[in-house]
Amino acid sequence: MNSSFDGGETAIGMPPPASGSINVLVVEDNAADLKQIKGMLAEAAQDFQIFTASKVEDALSLMQDLPFGVVLLDLSLPPEGHGLDTLRRAQVAASAIPIVVMTAKHDEKLALLAVRAGAQDYLVKGKWDAQLLIRTVLYAVERHRMLMELQEARRHQQFLASHDSLTGLSNRAAFEEALLRVLPYAQRHGKRIGLFYFDLDGFKAINDGLGHSAGDEVLKTVATRLEASLRKSDLAARLGGDEFVVMIQDVERGENAAKCAQRLLGLLSEQLRVAGQALQLSASIGIAIFPEDGADPEQLMQAADIAMYQAKSRGKNQYEFFSKDLSEKASDKLRLESSLLRALGNQEFLLHYQPIVCATTERLVRAEALLRWHDPEAGLLNAGKFVPAAEESGLIVPIGDWVLRRACGQWRAWRSQGLEAVPISVNLSARQLLNESVVESIAHVLAEAEMAPACLELELTETAIMLEFEQSVGVLKELHALGIRLSLDDFGTAYSSLSLLQAFPIDRVKIDRSFVSKLPGNPDSVALTAAIIALTHTLGLQVVAEGVETREQLEALVQQECDEIQGHFFSPALPPEEFTRWLRPRGA
To answer: Residue 6 pLDDT more than 50?
Structure first.
């Protein structure tokens, strides 16, 4: 091989040049021209490390072995002859190296053609000097660097357009495009495609408890595990938040797809450490199969999404297959949410009031405002028929605000009629409790109604106040400081914790009707209600028993020293005009 490196060392096997120097390969068979080029480059302030080759084959070998900053290429080397073939061969061998072509005086047109074919620049022998040669070499290196940076920026931009910036997984748009390409092929060849749509259980608690940076680490870990476990024919994407979707080809419904779901659940449940904490993840997965569950990406994604929410409703670490029944339930839910929105605007909601009486004197002590919906199609509906949908959709916040205003407004109306101004009890949902402006909003409603805070009691469930424990404690303390009474509803059905009663500023505990209904014949219920009443009294709180339907139940509760009673034995919930008889003085 006729090649050399200035300083007398062979080119092959040489270490990379020192930092700041530029490796220049001069492909030239004319000794005089080569000497001139080397002499001119020696005048430069830039440190050039010069390599030489007199044949194209030798040059191609060097370009594959060493990192060159630029190549000076004579287009008329023997035996290749006169033309662009030499340039093309060099470009194929080392596409990432900028090439400056050199031609004789009469070949400048050929040099221009070479530039159009991809050369960075050209030099005409005999029309150069040291300054021109050095400038051309340096410009070629710099232009090439800028082009590489531009190409990299474009590649990065294209990557961001189709990938999630946090995890590097495909994004929703890219995933749906991939489905558009895969589904027709699967249709033609009778293949099935499995879509596994999942989100992480309790991810919000990680963000809130450990911070968003920890949450981001969890998401990246999930993405890494997914990518490592999938075949090349499969695809994972992050849809946003903690929602992911996986496409697995050649999946049959039933045991095959179930095994895939179980493998995903097992993969996600592997312990990881984030922010110094050991975390155990779980997920809820919805499964949709092409073509049975959808003919296009939109239908498949929707089906898998519906199935995922069904899996989540069953508890953590579950998977669920899509079915027509689920689709009908989802449609019913959507229609119900739409109807609730309409009902709010059309004033279809109303309040009924149920008396709460003293267990021993049976005198009225308070009234609970209970929400009803006069649906034009279904008639009068109790809250249990629609409140869960309102809570899930978020409509419970404006509906709950309406309930509070209407109840306090009714209290003011009764007072203006000269009726007894008994306290009003109103249910407060978890979403309302966690609303940033809840305290200010309730204070404003009380001021509008000219209602003393002590005349308002807010009822909350154990589950609601445990969703965000610290925030709930703070909000309830602020409400209690205003003078508002607080009641813990459905006690005994969730945590039923002594520490819970001590942590929150609770005034009353309401025993759930499921225990009261079994009195006095069920020994377990008798023991449980007695224990709740005794425990509550020990803490200086009052006890209300809900769902009292019979004289026997009343007597059992009185014997256990229950403070207050609520139930159909005394009265069902009544419209405002009918409830007024409870407010009039006895005998009036």
So the answer is: no
Fold classification of 334-583 is TIM Barrel (3.20.20)
Query: H/E/C letters for each residue in 80-139?
Result: CCCCCHHHHHHHHHCCCCCEEEEECHHHHHHHHHHHHCCCCEEEECCCCCHHHHHHHHHH
CA 14 to chain centre: 52
**Cα 318–Cα 319–Cα 324 angle in degrees, nearest 5:** 135
Rounded distance between C-alpha atoms, residue 412 and residue 415, angstroms: 5
- For residues 62 and 93, the answer to whether their CB atoms sit within 8 Å is no
Homologous superfamily, domain 172-322: Reverse transcriptase/Diguanylate cyclase domain (3.30.70.270)
| Spatial distance between the Cα atoms of 424 and 356, rounded to a whole number of angstroms | 10
Q: Which residues of 59-74 are buried (b: 16+ CB within 10 A; e: fewer)?
A: bbbbbeebebbbbbbb
Rounded to an integer, what distance in angstroms lies between the CA atom of residue 91 and that of residue 60?
9
Domain 3-159 annotated CATH 3.30.70.100: no
Q: How far apart are alpha carbons 198 and 267 in whole angstroms?
A: 13
> Distance (Å, rounded) from C-alpha 65 to C-alpha 63?
6
pTM: 0.55
Distances (CA, A) of 177 to 104, 171, 172, 181: 53, 10, 9, 7
Of 308, 314, 315, nearest to 244 by C-alpha is 308
Q: What is the pLDDT of residues 72-124, one digit of tens each?
A: 999 887 665 556 888 888 888 777 889 999 988 778 888 888 888 888 899 99
Residue 195 vs residue 588, higher pLDDT: 195
C-alpha pair distances (Å), 201 with each of 204, 284, 285, 318, 393: 8, 7, 10, 10, 19
- Every domain of the chain and the residues it spans: 3-159, 172-322, 334-583
Contact 269, 281 (CB under 8 A): yes
CB 372 within 8 A of CB 351: yes
CA distances to 363, 477, 539, 554 from 358, in Å: 5, 27, 20, 11
Q: What is the pLDDT of residues 516-542, one digit of tens each?
A: 999 999 999 999 999 999 989 998 999
